[in-house]
Amino acid sequence: MSPVKFRPLLACLAAATALAAGLSAAPASAANTFRFAFQGDLKSLDPYTLKETFTIAAHGAVYESLVTRDKDLKLAPGLAESWETPEPTRYRFKLRRNVKFHDGSPFTADDVIFSAERVRAPGSNFQTNVPADATFVKVDDHTVDMVLKNPNPIALYQFGGWYIMSKAWAEKHDATKPTPVSATTPSYAALHENGTGPFTITEHQPGVRTVFKKFDGYWGKVESNIDEAVFTTISNDATRVAALLSGEVDWVDPVPLQDQSRVSSSANAVVVNAPELRTIYLGMDQTSDELRGSNVKGKNPFKDVRVREAFFRAIDEDAIVKRVMRGQAAAAALLIAPPLFPLAGEFKRPAYDPNKAKALLAEAGYPNGFEVPLDCPNDRYVNDEAICQAITSMLARVGVKVNLLAQPKAKYFAKILKPAYDTSFYLLGWTPSSMDSHNILYEITGCRTDKASPRGTTNLGNYCNPKVDALADKIERETDQEARNLMIKQAYDIVMNDWGYIPLHQQALAWGVSKKVKLVPRADNQMMLYWVSKEP
């Protein structure tokens, strides 16, 4: 297979639009059940628990945002039917009327204001989806103002993953606080939902099965003829593919690379491949005085830039793309996919050089290497555990002993994410929800120095350079796109010169889809139920 080539974003999405064209062909009255399976689970129904693509998409069937994204990832009206900026620091949202939550209660401005506070509260994994300096003001029951301290041209870009909850429902069920990803006891909101979306959830067994049913009281039209959708977790690759080929399920993600030819040549299903905007990368603990799980005592090797560069140089990403990913990935030079940053082409990935890596380790005082644990999911990204195994072998060649801990995503995320941040070295994937570099420069590379600030929420190793933070703040306010791009480039230059992260690749979307099904493979890898149709 040839490596995935990234074209301009709209061209990448042309196939998605073509697939979507036939969505309304099936009779709306057909009683259909759509069955889908993912390698990981759907643990919590609280829409502020986990910023993970599959979970966000699943929640998007039942909850809605003020501003959403269409099939081409462009901003589109959601619960706000329109908006305007009467002044540079004020957004005015006109809310849809006659919208009901699933319990029958009306949607009003009070729910927006409540949700804006809840999403930014401690425990939320979506704090950066709403500007930290934003104040929401009720004008009337169907008009809300968002007032900012400074102009922010990208304020709405993050809204697509910020879902609106019912204030009265949350208060009634003691669910006014978000459920942290590390919670050991589920809240009411983690086990139940009350959104305004086109589907309700009638059954939820975390990690096993979730049943969605069409909501008869939905305010809008739905481009789907399915009446019910049943989600199951199928972690085993062979079992998941077998379920697709037998017709037991209609959609799976992902199709293992080694099985794609077999699925595509089958009578019942096809593999939908498309470039994805997610970047897979490695992060390192650059804060702790002593590296957890290492045989180096009293110091942290990752605080030394030479060690970080050595790790980067020791990893043969071209080999990972060719052998582990079977060509279905594009090696990355940055933490962002090229279609999302016009100047990405000016960056080149540093060359694989194990000899230089050894020399750098010796220069840093580790001529024989050292031990370090590597946290990795085994059911989240395409070939995630296999990638980590390859990295373990590559680092062994330069004397570094990596102790790999690969776990299901529920345990993995609870361990590494806020508030635990319990990791020394980790693999993670990221698609900026705003489709903009500021999200990465604020959330991934931002200094985690102020506990009250959401900056650096997903900066698990706390890489920190105040110059990057200063640039991120300017980028957030800059309205001149050319000047903004130059500042973004400057920030990425600093991060890469610091060897702050190790970008690996952008993986390819690999869905297995029944030939009876039509859907939209968006480049953010979100499969939205309201764009799914199935032949009776």
TrEMBL record:
InterPro entries hit by this protein: Peptide/Ni-bd (IPR030678), SBP_5 (IPR039424), SBP_5_dom (IPR000914)
CDD domains registered for this protein in UniProt: PBP2_NikA_DppA_OppA_like_2
Name of the molecule in the record: ABC transporter substrate-binding protein
GO cellular component terms given for this protein: ATP-binding cassette (ABC) transporter complex; outer membrane-bounded periplasmic space
Domain Solute-binding protein family positions: 74-449
Gene3D superfamilies recorded: Dipeptide-binding Protein, Domain 1, Dipeptide-binding Protein, Domain 3, Periplasmic binding protein-like II
Gene Ontology molecular functions: peptide transmembrane transporter activity
Keywords: Signal, Transport
UniProt-listed GO biological process terms: peptide transport
Presence of the UniProt keyword Transport in the record: yes
Superkingdom of source: Bacteria
Organism whose genome encodes this protein: Methylobacterium nonmethylotrophicum
Signal peptide coordinates: 1-30
